[in-house]
Amino acid sequence: MPQRHPASRISLALLIAGMVSLGMLLLTLVMVGQSFLGMERAKVTAASSAAHQLLINVDDRLRTLTTPSAATMALLSHDPLGRAVTLAERLERLPAISSILQASDVASAIYVGYPNGEFFQLRKVKSSGSVQFPDAPPGAAYFVQGSAAHGSSEQSLRRFYDAQMRPLADRKLEGQIYDPRTRDWFRNAIRSTQSELAPPYVFFTTGETGITFSHMASEGGAVFGMDASVSDITDQLSELKPTPNTHVAILNDDDKILAHTGQGETNHPVLLAAVHQQGQTIADSSVRRFKVNDQHWYGTTRTSSLLPGEQLTVAVVIPAEEILKQVWELLTRQALIAGLIGLVMTILGWILGRRVAKPLEALTDHVSQLSQFRFDTWEAPASKVREAHKLGSALDNMASSISSFQRIANVLNRGQNLDGLLHDILTQIISIVGEERGGVYLFRRQSETLGLAVDKDPNLPRQIGGIAATQDDASVIQNLRQRLSGNPLVTILRNRDGKLVGALVIEMERGDHERLSDELIAFVQQISGSAAVAIETQELIESQQAMLDGTIQLVANAIDSKSRHTAAHCSRVPQLAEMLVDAATASNKGVFADFTMSDEERYEFRLAAWLHDCGKITSPEYVINKAVKLETIHNRIHEIRTRFEVLHRDADIRYLKRQLKGDDEAAARQERNATQKRLQQEFAFIASINHGSEALSASDIDRIHNIGRQTWQRHFSDRLGLSWDEEQAAAEHPEPILPAAEPLLSDKPEHTRPWGEHRPPVQRDDPRNRWGFDMTLPDFAANKGELHNLTVARGTLTPEERFRVNEHIVQTICMLDALPLPDRLANVPRLAGTHHERMDGQGYPRRLTRDQLSIPERIMVLADVFEALTASDRPYKEAKSLTESLGIVARMVSNGHIDRDVFELFIRSGTYRRYAQRFLDPEQIDRVDERLFMTPD
């Protein structure tokens, strides 16, 4: 066989070096190529996701601006300002109205337009970041303008106030007279029963462009309005920008830009290109890439129907280079690292080719696995050659680091619990650095301390004090090093706003502890940024949850504060209900054997319990507080007593006239005395009936009517000094010629008030009734008739007033059903609206039976009843002892009101006793014989 010339053979060192170089080059090209293609796809996906999410956030932010404002207007419609007649009465409401302006970031003015053309407004002097009144005196914070009729003349006011609502200076009224009845916001509101939102227009007073919320007052025909300038809305939207150069704009149908968060001209060419790409309007929610002035952008639009009568378009454009800037930097860094590793491998292969032949084969296999993105199967090959061993270890560490990055990404995507999230991130970061011990501290702003959240080192201190939020990173690191032992690597964690959120500590136990490279420190700082993101995200979620809980408790406390008769009811019922739910979950008997509730179901039940009486905010206060039968806004027994006084005085007059005529004085005196004695007795009887403490008999009702038939002479017109509502009620009935004889007690036609347009949809056959209500509706919305009220058989409430009290549960369901609750809270309206149902189906508002009520709903029924029975802060009844209250509940169980299983659980678990120890007065807590209330086995 012929021998080949040695020069035609390749040396092993060169072959190995070439193969290593070629392998690393191919691996680098594959990784860079795959990364490049992946980044291209990720760029478009990230642009779409960022733009769509921003559109959703903008739409949500617009709704967070309009929805609370509409709710504020609905509450404001009940304010006495809508019924105020004089300027003095209206000025008395300034503190309440100014507090609403102070609490709102976007509201610039609150005003009222009256049906007679009068106008009253409170406006911020500084709005949209500038002073709107050039003639405002120093220190002025508010401007008040108003007009009111005063007899035959008209009063007007134009006055400035400081921030404490102290008057500063008056100004003369000049220019065009403002008539609210000619304005769209006034016209829209009087034709609607809810809050209205006017399209953008130029404000009359300040010349700003903005929108107006308006709502008709509950009484009197006035209309409340609230202004929000477009500039203030722009400031709100600016907070949503994900990148510095992102532009967000709101446009109308004419492509006029109403609000723009970017810099420069209002008609920004990039925004116009996004809305009309290549002459074609972009479909809502589609994302397209376009080029303007040699710069690439991603743009999308979304329509919004928040403003009535006008379609708005929200446009978002994001610079392409800002979306994945950090990802491109990471790609460049990875390519550089791969190139450096390839260079090192080439040099080692050339120098140590002969000695590393066998280990090189194993490394080639591993490199092949790496080229297939199999990072979790690496194992360094055994070799006596130091260089080959180091190369294997380096590749092993690289694969481990890449795998750790992947696991960190998975943790961030799937983690929900903050402690677990931080623990997994700490584990991965320590693994990447090649150490074993470390910890994550969280900053507590109130106590100015760092608390150890998670750790892999039992020797770390649990808390480190003396940390101020204003300290820079160097000061915080110095403070930590003084408290930590060993050679820790400390990285400060800050959120996207640069605020201190915590610190990452890694104990460096390998290598040169004295000389930590800047590259290692920078590397740890970059990858530990994921921990700061996780902390910030979780804090945002928890703060939103805390805000929701706080708002719900605020509503409950406001309802309790509305009436002294129900004080603390809305806060005690949830606590009792949750105690019963805990007992039901722990029980393994009867219907509760399989009863469980998840954390989300418990939270849903808790919210419903706190909001179970939120509808009482619409209940008339005089009905809730009605202590006697004749009470409305005041106790009308005083009017009836005055009539008795007239008859008493008439008896004296008849006596004197008989003397003047020469009649027998003794007989006249006897007649007078008998009449006055009878009147005293009759009034005492009427006054006792007014209390409503005892049930009326048929004879009592007949006596009331007989007393009421007595007449007295009225000489003054009863049509003077009436409110608008009273005038409307009396307009259909002619006034008798004076003097006129009137009965002592009467039910006049003007005492009734029809339902009109406010008829509630509570009857089963009402087409508006989509909630399944089944309640009896009285013929009238109100009946203030004196005989009608005095002849109420039991208690003090008429059927009309009893309905208004019961209607609070209808309002509770409607109000909660109108909220945009997430799916996990979808049962809140039903859970909150069933606590007045009965097991026998005779409750309200839906007449549900026991089988139609869940265990939590049956628990709510008992909790509501028992709290009311044992409450000691009700002025209309004495507090009952435990035994008395349980006896009443037991009778309610027997007559089908309360569920027997829940009641016996209440007794058996001792929940009644624990509740009593927390909330009842000591004198109410007596010894209870539980056997009296339990069904024998």
Automatic annotation (TrEMBL):
Gene3D superfamilies: 3.30.450.40, 6.10.340.10, Hypothetical protein af1432 (1.10.3210.10), PAS domain (3.30.450.20). The chain crosses the membrane at residues 12-33. Pfam families: HD_5. Residues 709-921 form the HD-GYP domain. Keywords: Membrane, Transmembrane, Transmembrane helix. Residues 354-407 form the HAMP domain. PROSITE patterns: HAMP, HD_GYP. This is Phosphodiesterase. The lineage of its organism: Bacteria, Pseudomonadati, Pseudomonadota, Gammaproteobacteria, Pseudomonadales.
